[in-house]
Amino acid sequence: MAHDTRGLDLSGATPEQAKIYDQVVSDYFDYRLSAFPTLKELCPEAPVFAMAHIMRGYLLMSMGVGGTVPSAMAAADHVDEHCADLNPRESLHLNALRAWGAGDVRSAVRHWDDVLFRWPRDAVALKVQHFGLFWLGQPQHMRDVAARVLPAYEDNTPGYANVLGMYSFGLEECGNYRKGEKIGLEAVERDPDDLWSIHAIAHIYEMEGRLDDGIKWLNQPNTEWFDRNPFKEHIWWHTALFAFDAGDYDRALKLFDESVWPDTSSFYLDVQNAASMLARLELGGVDVGDRWRSLADTAAERMGDHVLLFTEPHYSMAFSRCGEFDQADSQITSFRTFGESDKTTSGRDIAEIAVPLCEAMRDYYKGDYESVVNRIMPLRYNTAPVGGSHAQRDIFNLFLIDASQRSGNNQLAQALLAERVETHANNYDAWVRYGTVSDALGDTVNSARAASEKARIVAMRSN
Questions:
Q1: Is pLDDT of 266 > 90?
Q2: CA 176 – CA 264 distance, rounded (Å)
Q3: pLDDT digit string (tens) for 429-451?
Q4: Has this prediction a pTM greater than 0.90?
């Protein structure tokens, strides 16, 4: 029997096919465009190689659109029909793939846990589970699984740096920035090609407001990562986010055009990146022209495709920002109906969190700012189940603050901004707003403080 590079049995594979599979897994971890085409070539040549076909299903599911689910399930069917000698680990993988395809990600996560309890070096199980947990909003689980499997890895074990990167990100999302930075920097030193580890460090610098460190960390040229899949645009989103935080809106908009949304895309992460960056810039007073149009067009193409909860409010933003409120209403109604058909925890999360966030986005662009405040305030500490990171979900805080100001509730706005300038001390927009609401309330002390901090950030940026 053939084995993968970490010593795990691969039923139905020849040694040569196992080597190709190892390269696919490595390319998948590094977000290389070559991963799926290589696997697509391998599968017809290896009809009884179970993990190759399961991996094909995993890659199709990770695209985050409903249109790939039938093909992913066809890969599972192929394994059932042609791969008779699955080992117990592979059987758990097949169960996980079927659960994922059925929309039951929590069951898939439990199957991957079962794999990792018994085979901690199964890096594929770790990576796909990390993906699933991220979109379920379960950072503690993400952190703990990576910590659990680390003792099974040695310095020279293939994929060790990738495990460190996943551990770093889990630590960051749980607020352990010091240890997360230490682990993440080691991961990047071991494997400079691992975008997830690079991404984990960017998150730490964002959460701590370390703009200088973040800007230096993401100082890559525009041509960097040309051979990577659309996850690279998310790294560019982080680059633009540091510029936005520093008040350098011209640079943020330039990065948007060149690297965040260089052309139309239907990939879910590109839509999230683009909508949230355009919204930030407009909330900061930037004229973004007609850039929302292509996002609304993409949202229309995905109407009824309710795969990832976090993507949905971004569709609502795009429709509503373009004045297409009928489209936004149709999307929200479809999403609500979809949630009602799901009797699991996900169905409750859709009804109680995701749909109200979509409605808040719609109501903001309708000018019903009190509704925005009323919808988001009860959720502000409970948005994690829609998925995404703290940094990504922060867009809802920005809409809440702006809606508070626009509704004339300056006391609430000042209270929210008092929190924000403490936790985001180098955020230019937060200090601008804090000064504005303090002026409106006749609070000269905090108005003067805000003016001083704005000047400091501008000076820091110019250096």
A1: no
A2: 37
A3: 999 999 999 999 999 999 999 99
A4: yes
Q: What is the pLDDT of residues 131-156, one digit of tens each?
A: 999 999 999 999 999 999 999 999 99
Cα angle 166, 169, 174 (rounded to 5 degrees) comes to 130
Question: The tokens of 242 are what?
Answer: 């540091």
| 165: CB partners within 8 A, 6+ apart | 184, 187, 188, 191, 194, 196, 197, 200
Taking the alpha carbons at both ends of the chain, their separation in whole angstroms is 60
Region at 30 (left for phi over 0; alpha for psi -120 to 50; beta for the rest): alpha
**How far is the CA of 288 from the CAs of 85, 101, 127, 277, in angstroms?**
57, 38, 37, 10
Cα–Cα–Cα angle for 139, 145, 148, nearest 5°? 140
DSSP letter (8 states) at residue 238: H
Burial class (CB in 10 A: 0-12, 13-18, 19+), 144: middle
Using DSSP's 3-state secondary structure scheme, residue 17 falls into helix
Among residues 30, 24, 27, the alpha carbon closest in space to that of 42 is found at: 24
Residues in a beta bridge with 9: 3
List of residues 6+ apart from 250 with CB closer than 8 A = none
Q: Give the H or E element holding residue 3.
A: strand 2-3
With bands split at pLDDT 50, 70 and 90, how would you rate the model's confidence at 94? very high
* Helix, strand, coil in percent for the chain, rounding step 5: 75, 0, 25
Distance CA(174)–CA(197), nearest Å, equals: 16
